[in-house]
Design a protein that fits this description.
Strand 2 (119-127) and strand 3 (133-140) form a beta hairpin. The protein has two domains: 1-43; 69-170, no CATH class. 41% of the residues lie in helices and 12% in strands. By secondary structure, the chain is of the alpha+beta class. A three-stranded antiparallel sheet has the order 1-3-2, sandwiched between helices.
Length: 170
Amino acid sequence: MRRNRLATGLNVVGMGVGFAASILIFLWVEGELGYDKFTPGADKIFRLVGKVGPGAGAGTGQQEETGTAMVPTAFAAAIDGVDALLTPTTVTPAIPVASIDQNSTPAVFTRWVNFLDLCAAAVPNGFTAGGLPTSLQIVCRGYEEPLALRIGHAYQAAHDWHLRTPSMAG
């Protein structure tokens, strides 16, 4: 060890980096495997990931069309017996006008509704600590707009969020 200090130092540093990388990989895998497992009914939670726009689905024609066409059918089967899904309308609360990024959209929670041929209604459901409004999205099967509107009406009858106005003081 004393004769080859440089080699020993490199070995110790390399082993330390290896251990650190192993620990980070273990923590990452554990996080991925445990994602949303704490939620009751986690086995019934679905995450839909898809590409929209030019270059979406660079697969072969017929297979791609069949696969894309099957998604709404598979989703409908997965939610059989469910009248409505309630989700936030956007990922973030309302965005102050001064901080809007015109190159992006907060519509992550609304795109899948269109993709799956569903319908939705949005109702106010509160304010953030900063006074910005939030909303609840009520998603129903396609052409079941009356059901979405009835649920929204019942929610508004039980709460007064739709009557409140945000403070304009910033």
